[in-house]
Each structure stands twice: as C-alpha cells, then as structure tokens.
C-alpha cells in the first residue's frame, strides 16, 4: 500500500514510537501517581517529560499548562465549552475549521459564529476585510486552524490573532496539521490556547491530544471524573492541569508521543514535504481534467493537496486508486463543513485529498501521478 | 514488583493484547472507514467485531448499540449529561459510586442526588429502606456500580434496578470492576445502559471504554466533532453510535481490547480471584491491628480488599510496601467520595487497597501477608 492519507493520521510512525508503546505496555502501563509506587512514579515522570517537550516545541514558558486529553477533539470541546460565553457573543472562525470546532461552536446557544472572509479566487484569508469585520462586530474569540486539513493552505495566523488581540479576543489555534511540520512559536503567534493532536504531524499515536494554555486562561470544567486526588471533593480539583484531566492517563499513548517528540525534526519534515508537495502540485497541474485547490504562493501551502477530476465523483477516484493501484487516499468533505462552498466541489461530492508524510518517497508520488494520468486518459 | 493495584488498572495484560496492539500499530493504525481503502476497512472491521464481542459478553441483542469512548469516564459523561433532565429530578446513586458518576452528577444543576441507604455494620445496600425511599421520592434515574472499587463488594444490582424499573427510572450500571470477572447479563440485570472500561477487569488497554445502550435510549449529544460522515452537517449525525463518537477511533486500543475479549474467560478469572481473595481476607483478619472492610457473606465480595492498620496512615503503609517489599498497592480514597463516611477511615486518610488479577499468584499474596505481619509486629 502507498499510504497518502496522512492528513487523517500519519502512518507509519517512527520505529521508536512503536517500541516505546510496547515497552510502556509491558513495563509501566499503570495508573500514574507521583506519591505512589515506583512504576506509577515512572508513568508520572513520562507524562511530565512529555508535557515539557510539548512546551518546548511551541517555545512556551514553563508556567504554560500542557493539558492532555484523549484527542484534540476532546481538548477543543473542553476549550470551547469551557469559555464563559455571554449572550450575543461573536466568534470568528476561519472557513477552514474542522468539525471539532465547527460542530462544537454550533452546539452552543446564544453566540454568533462568523466566518473570516476569504478571497474567492485564491482561497486566502482576506485580512483587510477581516479587520473591517472585527471593527464592526467585535470578536469575543477567534478560532483559526494553522494548516487546512482540506487544502494544505497555511493560514496567516500571526496576522489574524494579532488583529484579534486588539479587541482582547480569546485566540485559539488548531495546530492538528502544523505542529511538527512548520514552526509553531507561541512567542510569534499570539494564541491564548494551542490545541494539538498527537497522531498527525507529531507522528505520535491515537489516544493522545490536548491543549497548551499559553495565557493560562481559566476555563469552566467540561468533563468530570476521578483525578486520583482530592477524591472526597465533588468538584474537580482547581489545580492547573488536573481540573481538565479526569480519568486515568493513557500512559501507553503518552509514551508513544514522548518517543515521537524525541525524534521529531521539524525542519527535516518540512523540507521533505516541501519537495514532495511541490513535485505533486507541478505534476497534477499538468494533467488535463484535474483541478487542484492550491494557493498561488507555494510557500503558503504544504503537505496536503486536494483536487477533483472532471467526470469523476471523488469517492470513485479513491476507490479506483485503492483497488487498481493500491494507493490509499481520503475522499469527501474531510470533516470541514465551511470551505466547500468556496471550492465548489459538490458535484464531485468533495475532493480527493493527498496527505504526504516524512515516510513518503518521490516514488510514491510518481506512482500516484502515473495512476491519475492513466485514469484521466 | 508484586503488582496489586489491579483495581486501578490490570497489569500485566495477556500477551495477545500487546501483540495485537503492536500489530495494529504497524499494519492498520489508520482512520477507519467502511467505504475507504483496504487498511481503513480492516480497521472498521476490527471495530465492528469488538462491538460484537462486547454485546455477546453481556448477552445483549444485536440491536443494542455499543458506543466506544476514550474511557468509561467520557462514556459516563456522555450518558449522564446526555439524559434530558428536568428540574427537581431525583437521582439515586449507591454510596459506592466513583467520581466519574458522583462528580458528573454534581456538575448538573436542578437535580437532587440521593444515596441508596446501606446497613452501617455490613456496608450492604439496605433494599427495604431503598424501596421506601423510591416510593417516597420517585427516581428519575438510578446509578449503581456493580463491584465497589474500594471494597470489592458485589452490589445487588438486580434487585436495585428491578425496583427502580417499577418507577420507570433510567438504570445505569457501572461495570468497570465487574465485566470480565463476574457475570454481567443484560437479560438478568435490568440496566438500560451498561458502562464499561477496557483497561480493568476486561484486561484491555487504556484508551478505550464505552457504554452498551441496552434499551437504546436517546441521549443528547455531549461531545461534538468530526465523524468522517455527513461532514457538511453542523450537528452530529443522528445515526446510532456515530452520534456519540466524535473524533478518530483509537484503533490500536480497540485492537488490544479485541484480543483481550477473545482470550477472556470469565469463569476462570472468577475462580482464580475467588481463591486469592478468600485467602487474603482470611489471613488479613488474623493480623492484629488490621481492619478489613469486607462483607460477612464472602460471595458478595471479590477481587478488591480495602483495609486500614492501627497506628498507620494508609499512605505510609503504601510507601513501606513499595520501598521495603516492592509491592504496589493503592492508598487513599480511590475516587469514591461517598463511602468513606461509612468506612470511617478518615483518621487513616483512606484505605490501603489490594486489587488482584488473573496474573497474581498465591505466592504474591503470601508475600503481602508476610510484609503486613512484619509491619504490624
């Protein structure tokens, strides 16, 4: 199988991730606890060390809490439902947001969700129009994904958030497709909260995500349960991360993420994906009948390529690539509800999406190009 | 290490669990999807097969939905916060409930939580008094754990729920410490919902739990996010399990649970723990200064033993057992907020808790007894 569904989850993972998980499983997959027995202390240390590596990766200060959740989806539920909303609050979202944000905001009542404006030709955020909208309808919060999981577009999050901060808005970055692939520097991007997924561009396993509370903003508790501490208290304990971390830690997944972070090389991954992405786009653009949804400026794009083929439903392209060429891609709307009205891909029932990883070779891409060439002939 | 903290999480797991997880990691740890490429279809099949094994384990009909969550805590949040409560609704809980239930109910406003009455000498549920309370204050819902995670007491859930059903109450069983160890038969126990944890008596890994919706009662959505289907819909899709399952499936954890279920032998585990439990209780009862919190009727108790030692804080006992004898136990209040007022263990700061598993030997228990004998000498 040539696996090109890396935007859904990166596969495979680096060997130390597998080994780290198996070792954790066999040696210390117990309930962590600092004041407890040695295996539990070991688990607690791995958790602490992993928090530290995450903090370091985004250049956050040591006081920034790294909260672990079973997934970035759960993390974003905690963040979004944890904000003290008031009636008629206005929230801005980029039109590239994922349903982890879009559906979660939609589940709240009394707030108004406004999409950031985009240029309908380049599909880029229109910063000037955004400034106008902010001035007209003051943002209470702004949610912005860093890299679109549909098109690979790198959003201008520095500009979006610095403008949002003029209105004291809460700024939340979704780094699911960026952390580990491009620089995510909390000193440069004015995000109060950075949500992260373990299993995508970080090359960790399923079962671990979270958020970095850069500004340590206080959130209401969303999920409740045991914390192993303060057990007689019917409220979640108030202390920093514990408040948002009910239930046993998934130490096996955290151990996998720890190994992934230890061997992560952001620059190497970027350079590798830069080459593969550009090569793929160049070649796709040369195939008649293929429409790519890629920004004109190549530096605003990385890793993910969405396209449609004239005369084909995207699902059918996916099926043919799987069955005839053993190439795994994802097709459809990719859990991104807003953007497709701009891409105008509904007659294709969404796009064919390629996601590359550090483990893909140029040969993989050549094989894909060849297959699509045959398919469109 | 002699590991006796199995009530927190069973450790180790059967070898096929480790192997199944590693294999899933290396072969098909991708985003599942029925209409997708082959590895994704394989992941989807493992998920379906695991649901089937869970359903079979509780003798549920094929129409009962098995919903997967990252943990039983998340599952119970979905269940409890998903019920359509009305003002002044009355909820009964056993005094043995875990904070996944206690704190979650406490986070709701407008409902009244009443503890089921217990006999203060035997620590058993007082069914007659319970009947009186139900008649006086009609239950909207009744939550009952099957086996106490503090004392190992097997609660009379059949009686509790059959009485609750006379009032059409919603009945929710917490099977975290029972499923896989004793019979949990949905034909005999009138539970609308059975919540389960993968990583305890089922011997699966962290990262997977859920609930079996025996009566297929409709719950409001608690967590929102991508489902890989119906992506343009800003609400969660209505279909059965999908509604409650946002985010990518943790296929590695599910593969582990699948292997655990395949090699699970409830009767063998029960018989093994029966012997170890009785042996441990007999011996602890003979040690001067040790108070065990065990029901008189041994058949109402299995697997978990809580005790205190005169003159010792329980944490100190745990520390000594770890440092001097390499025995891992759990001490404190065990995330169970209600029961300790009956156990009257506050001067000890909670109990010392032993949890045995299929992997413990009589030698392990002998070593523990010897250690406690030395400690109390």
Descriptive report:
Two copies of one chain form a homodimer. With about 375 residues, chain A is of the alpha/beta class. The first copy, chain A, has eleven helices and 13 strands. Chain A has helices at about 15-25, 40-55, 70-80, 100-105, 125-135, 155-165, 250-260, 265-285, 315-325, 340-345, 360-375, and strands at about 1-5, 65-70, 90-95, 110-115, 140-145, 170-175, 195, 210-215, 290, 305-310, 325-330, 330, 350-355. In chain A, the strands form three sheets. A seven-stranded mixed beta sheet of chain A has the order 2-8-7-6-5-3-4, sandwiched between helices. The first copy, chain A, has a four-stranded antiparallel beta sheet with strand order 9-10-13-12, covered by helices on one side. In chain A, strands 1-11 form a two-stranded parallel sheet. In chain A, helix 6 links the parallel strand 5 (about 140-145) and strand 6. In chain A, helix 3 (about 70-80) runs parallel beside helix 4 (about 100-105). The longest helix of chain A has 20 residues, at about 40-55. Chain A is globular, with a radius of gyration of 21 Å. Chain A starts with a strand and ends with a helix. The model of chain A has no long low-confidence stretch (mean pLDDT about 95). At the A-B interface, helix 1, helix 2, helix 3, helix 4 and helix 7 of A face helix 1, helix 2, helix 3, helix 4 and helix 7 of B.
